[in-house]
Amino acid sequence: MVLTKIVHEFRGVFKTENSRFVASVGLKVSGISLIITFAIYWFLFQVLRLNYAFFRAHGFPEVRDDSSFFDLVIVETLDTLPGLFVFHICLFFIGSYVGWLMLRPFKTMGDYCENVLENLNYAYKVEEFSSYTLFTRFSEFFFEYLRESRRKKEILSNSIPPQYSKIHKPVIDYIFLLHFGLLLIIVSIVSAIFIIENTGTVYASMVELATKTLKDQASVSKYFTEQMFIMDSIFKLTIVLLTFFYTLLGLHLYSKISGASFAIFSTMRTYMKGNYSSRVHLVGYTHMREYTRKLNKYLDYVQKNFSNEQSKN
Q1: What confidence tens digit (pLDDT) does each residue in 268-280 have?
Q2: Rounded to two decimals, what is the model's pTM?
């Protein structure tokens, strides 16, 4: 079911603002891991260069030049490339799914506004996993208010619940942060395991190559034992970089919806206060326009057909 919806979303990729947003989230999620992977591989390459100097100093018997040595070791790296490619393709789709989840409450709102014009009893349902506390809870209250107004053929006067009346700026949505924070943590952990496993494999192949070919086994063993702190530092750097950049990504994605959800909430609240000309006008949230247009169209319909002024006439 979910896969079908994602495939349907990607049929129009790059053709609409919301599908471009979904794809961009996928690229950002996979891109962070890919860039850090290449950065860690570069650090590992520097370790290989240091070890090459060590091998040359100890008379490495089968290496005549730099290319010969690195050909022997990097063949292991090349073997990891197919897995690297597949892994980041999977990350792209996981990231796209995250983007799709972010837009789903707004898409649900847009679909509802489109369908309820013809069917007054059309249900407004938002799944808990992808909901935003302020926007979702108030939109349920607001759409029920419009439903009752349509049934009574006039826009009813209504008081705003106290918990919504004093909100004048975007609030931190802990539900969103919890849900999507967990997703990004999982992505970060999986990426760290993947990078560490692959770099560890390349390093292990180098150690195996050295122990098989160098004559002074005691020196080799001591050298690589002393060198392990470098690999530990690389592994720690991988975890730190992934944590830092996925945290930044989470904050960036949050900013992409927090302002828009507050603007929609504010418009709904103003409408209920009697300003029936109030509409959603978002600047910088192009990925939301399709959904807010449908909301504005529904508000136009209610204002035109059920305003108190028209009823009195």
Answers
A1: 999 988 888 889 9
A2: 0.80
